[in-house]
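STRUCTURE:
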């Protein structure tokens, strides 16, 4: 199952893999980026590749790369190398299904070499990676729709009309069956700090209540998109609706509105649309407790706009900025100045991510701490917490 889109790809993939696992089907999951270790990119039934298998598979791919280079074929990219490794690993382990997340775009992505997937999924589309994919939603949708194959079902998030028109047009040209997920198909039943229960309505099954272990409303759409896909493919996999419900409820997707400690949430939102969705969630809690924010971003993101939206919507009581991303880093001081410029008073900068996280924890008090702005930030916090647990 091939998944493309701007936001929600990884979460949708995680829901799919969890439903296959709950249904007793061996499922490989190929994702990017990783948060702590590169081995996260290759998973089978919720377990990442072992160090031994990783080294062995890499050795096999490296031999082929050397032959390619000797023959003047050129060296594959980092992502292409990992993609081939993933396919070799899943073949070695003889999985029944593979859930495949695109790296960038879709039309020219290495994953698009899969000629006939069971289904093509396109999650929400917005402006991101405009230097490569185009500077309009329509242009970006065209790149994402490049994964659609002749006769292969297309399941897509239909909440952006101009993107939907491009997807439907491409599907019709290729005689691919189309299934649109509309916002009205997901209705909240209950929500608290432990997660959300929502009613899924569609022409393809009776009303079904789904539980997700996340507090973000946008995760309803990702879960619903994955669930709809499994309904479309039910004749292929044969997993009951009850098992699919359990799979949705037991999904684990690190770093996306993930509660890592009581009152401490990390989220990988790193573009304008992702931050808008983060704000939608954080705003729910801003009225009931003080919000502390730990923020970082990289230079090729619209971090000024992101900061402005966050400040306007949730008015954090404390802000700590830090820096991540190596050569792409924005200094902690520059980010702090941007928050001050947006009207935040209690702002501190700390370049070291671990010290910044500890400082933000101190500032949080009895309120909530949200760590947001970059997957690099999420990865560094996750690594720190894992080291602390080991110690």
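SEQUENCE:
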């Amino acid at each position: 199952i091939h998944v493309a889109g701007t936001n929600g790809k990884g979460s949708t993939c995680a829901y799919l893999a969890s439903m296959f696992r709950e249904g007793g089907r061996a499922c490989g999951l190929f994702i990017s980026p990783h948060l702590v270790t590169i081995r996260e990119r290759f998973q089978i039934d919720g377990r990442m590749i072992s160090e031994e298998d990783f080294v062995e598979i890499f050795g096999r791919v490296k031999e082929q790369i050397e032959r390619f280079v000797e023959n003047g074929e050129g060296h594959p990219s980092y992502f292409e190398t990992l993609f081939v490794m993933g396919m070799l690993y899943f073949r070695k382990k003889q999985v029944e299904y593979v859930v495949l997340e695109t790296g960038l775009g879709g039309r020219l992505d290495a994953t698009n070499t899969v000629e006939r997937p069971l289904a093509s999924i396109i999650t929400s589309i917005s402006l991101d990676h405009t230097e490569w994919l185009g500077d309009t939603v329509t242009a970006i949708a065209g790149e994402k729709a490049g994964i659609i194959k002749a006769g292969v079902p297309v399941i897509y998030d239909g909440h952006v009309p101009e993107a939907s028109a491009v997807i439907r047009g491409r599907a019709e040209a290729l005689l691919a069956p189309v299934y649109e997920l509309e916002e009205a198909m997901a209705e909240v039943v209950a929500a608290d700090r432990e997660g959300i229960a929502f009613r899924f309505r569609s022409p393809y099954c009776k009303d079904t209540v789904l539980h997700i272990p996340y507090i973000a409303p946008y995760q309803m759409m990702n879960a619903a998109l994955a669930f709809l896909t499994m309904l479309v493919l039910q004749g292929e996999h044969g997993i009951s609706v009850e098992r699919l419900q359990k799979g949705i409820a037991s999904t684990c997707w690190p770093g996306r509105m993930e509660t890592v400690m009581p009152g401490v949430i990390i989220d990988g939102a790193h573009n304008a649309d992702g931050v808008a969705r983060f704000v939608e969630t954080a705003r729910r809690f801003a009225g009931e407790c003080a919000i502390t924010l730990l923020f970082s971003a990289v230079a090729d993101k619209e971090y000024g706009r992101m900061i402005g939206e966050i400040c306007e919507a949730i008015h954090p009581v404390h802000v700590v900025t830090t820096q991540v991303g190596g050569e792409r880093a924005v200094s902690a001081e520059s980010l702090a100045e941007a928050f001050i410029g947006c009207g935040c008073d209690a702002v501190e900068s700390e370049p070291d991510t671990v010290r910044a996280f500890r400082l933000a924890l101190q500032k949080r008090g009895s309120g909530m701490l949200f760590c947001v702005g970059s997957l690099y930030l999420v990865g560094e916090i996750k690594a720190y917490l894992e080291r602390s647990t080991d110690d």
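REMARK: The longest helix spans residues 51-70.
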